[in-house]
């Protein structure tokens, strides 16, 4: 952990110094400066981190339990891979019993303070390629896949609040778009890719526009939608309800070779993902130990590709290698966003009914940014903990970029008629109505003595009126 502390300290000092050179409230008259202590403590935060998996192959399975999510949270886990294998429905609709199993699982995530990386497919084991007639197919026909997506659409819409991201799935063994019976193996032409694009289009339509769909390789997005390295997402395009902004990636053979076992066909494809993942979700799992798994390369690569999540269970050999070489703690700490206050400045002599200036400096020392919509608000509470007033923060957490310091400089007006002691906090809740008031879904800042787990608020400053 000392390695992480030194890293966080160095980054904070570097970014803090750069921020001061660009201006800010430090030292301004009429403002009271508050400093915060950054911590390298590991703790659970929504929509990021190591994940474990649960899969279902029939309607007879029991949904994941809330106790299992509670136990996972004790290990700082809030993300789970949730896989549904449609083995009984190659040529028929998904049964109502199986649809209900899907709903029940997603409902448990909603009450249990967790979210899922969701995948649907038909086969989760490699068949005997020498005797294919003796094995079940890898996938269903395009027509059947589209019918299944139509059946799933109401569920995806209803429970999108606990779907962190949807992986494209459906096609090929493990839903990884490679071995396939009904889609062209090794597509090259625009026409070859068209059936896959039909599936991808249907998935984008089935989800609310604030959720992303992950593709297994950068080639699929580039070939299906006609993008090149010159077309990567800009800040102005980021997080918009467009296909371009909503198509993300997952790498399920991360660091296994120079091409990640065929994930990349060229250097330009790797550069494409480095650029795209500034604003789209990236995660996956390792599949084999290689020279590319060395700690220095891993940390550099995860930062370049903006990794938000990783499988804790696979590949065990790689995980053990990182543990042995003492970089696993840093990987766990920096996956996704990691936001830490470094300094705050507040109106020195606040008065009821008067303007109150708030200036915050927030470092993001994670590999990535917040990816899904996230509310941000200032909350004023009285000494007894009652909420007096809230104000929306005029800064989108999805643009609090990794490796940078975000400066929030905002003036609010305190309510009239107040007297006594008050506390101003920063609340970063999930915007979904179903989750907004559940602190398990709120973002905790990486500082000592600011987090209130009962409310999900991060305390900024206490003052008297």
Write the layout of secondary structure elements.
Layout: H1 2-21, E1 31-35, E2 49-56, H2 66-74, E3 79-85, H3 96-112, E4 115-121, H4 142-158, E5 163-167, H5 190-206, E6 213-215, H6 218-225, H7 243-246, E7 247-254, H8 267-276, E8 282-286, H9 295-304, E9 309-311, H10 316-324, H11 328-334, E10 339-347, E11 355-364, E12 377-382, E13 387-392, E14 404-413, E15 421-427, E16 451-452, E17 457-464
Parallel strand pairs: 2-3, 2-9, 3-4, 4-5, 5-6, 6-7, 7-8, 8-9
Antiparallel strand pairs: 1-10, 10-11, 11-14, 12-13, 12-15, 15-17, 16-17
Helix pairs in contact: 2-3, 4-5, 5-6
Structure description:
The chain has 465 residues and is α/β, with parallel strands linked by helices. It has 2 domains: 2-42 and 338-464, Immunoglobulin-like (Sandwich); 49-334, TIM Barrel. Helix content is 28%, strand content 23%. It is built from 11 helices and 17 strands. The strands form 3 sheets. It has an 8-stranded parallel β-barrel with strand order 2-3-4-5-6-7-8-9, surrounded by 4 helices. Helix 2 (66-74) crosses helix 3 and helix 4 (142-158) runs parallel beside helix 5 (190-206). The longest helix is centred in the N-terminal third of the chain and has 20 residues, at 2-21. The two termini are 42 Å apart. Mean pLDDT is 93; it is low at 1-24.
């Amino acid at each position: 952990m000392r390695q992480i502390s030194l890293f966080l300290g160095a980054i904070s000092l570097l970014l803090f110094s750069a921020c001061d050179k660009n201006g800010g409230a430090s030292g301004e008259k009429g403002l009271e400066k508050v400093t915060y202590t950054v911590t390298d403590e590991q703790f659970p935060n929504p929509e990021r981190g190591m994940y474990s998996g649960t899969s279902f192959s029939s309607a007879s399975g029991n949904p994941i339990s809330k106790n299992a999510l509670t136990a996972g949270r004790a290990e700082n886990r809030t993300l789970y891979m949730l896989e549904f294998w449609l083995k009984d429905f190659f040529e028929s609709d998904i049964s109502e019993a199986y649809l209900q199993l899907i709903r029940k699982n997603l409902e448990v995530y909603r009450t249990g303070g967790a979210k899922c990386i969701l995948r649907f497919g038909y086969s989760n084991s490699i068949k005997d390629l020498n005797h294919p007639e003796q094995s079940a197919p890898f996938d269903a026909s395009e027509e059947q896949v589209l019918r299944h997506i139509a059946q799933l659409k109401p569920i995806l819409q209803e429970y999108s609040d606990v779907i962190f991201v949807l992986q494209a799935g459906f096609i090929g063994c493990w839903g990884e778009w490679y071995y396939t019976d009904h889609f062209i193996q090794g597509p090259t032409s625009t026409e070859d890719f068209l059936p896959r694009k039909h599936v991808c289009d249907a998935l984008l339509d089935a989800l609310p526009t604030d959720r992303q769909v992950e593709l297994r390789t950068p080639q699929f997005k580039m070939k299906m939608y006609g993008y090149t390295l010159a077309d990567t997402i800009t800040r102005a395009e980021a997080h918009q309800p467009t296909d371009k902004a909503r198509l993300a990636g997952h790498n399920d053979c991360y660091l296994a070779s120079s091409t990640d076992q065929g994930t990349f066909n060229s250097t330009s494809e790797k550069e494409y993902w480095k650029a795209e993942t500034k604003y789209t979700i990236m995660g996956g799992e390792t599949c084999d130990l290689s020279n590319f798994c060395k700690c220095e390369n891993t940390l550099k690569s995860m930062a370049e590709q903006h990794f938000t999540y990783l499988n804790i269970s696979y590949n065990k050999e790689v995980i053990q290698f990182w543990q042995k070489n003492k970089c696993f703690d840093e990987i766990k700490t920096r996956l996704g966003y990691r936001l830490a206050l470094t300094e705050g400045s507040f109106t020195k002599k606040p008065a009821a009914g008067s303007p109150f200036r708030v200036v915050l400096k927030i470092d993001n020392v994670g590999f990535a940014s917040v990816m899904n919509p996230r509310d941000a608000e200032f909350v004023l509470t009285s000494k007894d903990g009652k909420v007096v007033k809230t104000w929306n923060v005029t800064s989108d957490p999805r643009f609090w970029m990794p490796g940078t310091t975000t400066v929030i400089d905002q003036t609010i007006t305190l309510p009239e008629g107040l007297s006594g002691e008050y506390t101003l906090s920063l609340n970063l809740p999930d915007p979904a109505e179903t989750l907004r008031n559940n602190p398990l879904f709120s973002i905790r800042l990486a500082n000592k003595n600011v987090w209130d787990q009962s409310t999900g608020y991060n305390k900024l400053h206490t003052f008297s009126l």
